[in-house]
Amino acid sequence: MKKASFLKKQIYRSLLTDLKNNIDVTTMPQIKADRLIDLFCTYLANYTDVKRVNDIDDHCIEGYLKYLTENHKRLGMNLKEIKISMQLLEEALEMKIDQSLVDFSLSNTSLWNKL
């Protein structure tokens, strides 16, 4: 295994463990929450320089939302799952995500213009 792949896998596992510990899944099945968190950690490990949960900021969340919307067919995700993913991240990260990133109404032009 290449060193870069090994490091990405370590970062992924560390982020996944930390985020799963922060989730209280009462509104959705555990397997769905696990899949959404797994996808986010995979994104962070492969496409960002984030190494710890504390490094995650609004810029990372915005990039992830763009990633989801551009790759939703390949990922097998619909708009409802993307919205749930954003809400789950808000809970797992214990931070308030910019309201324009969690409002998927057609009148939210700031979101749709960014995408």
Summarize it:
The chain is mostly helical and 115 residues long.
Nearest-integer average pLDDT: 81
What sequence of helices (H) and strands (E) makes up the elements? Answer: HHHHHH
Q: Give the count of helical stretches.
A: 6
- Could you say which overall geometry the principal axes of the C-alpha atoms support? globular
- What is the number of strand segments? 0
- Which stretches of 5+ consecutive residues score pLDDT under 50? none
Helical percent range?
Answer: 55-70%
For the terminal residues, how far apart are their CA atoms? 36 Å
Strand content: under 5%
Query: Largest sheet, described in full?
Result: none
Radius of gyration: 14 Å
Structural class: mainly alpha
What does this structure look like?
By secondary structure, this protein is an all-alpha fold. The protein has six helices and no strands. The termini are far apart. The mean pLDDT is 81.
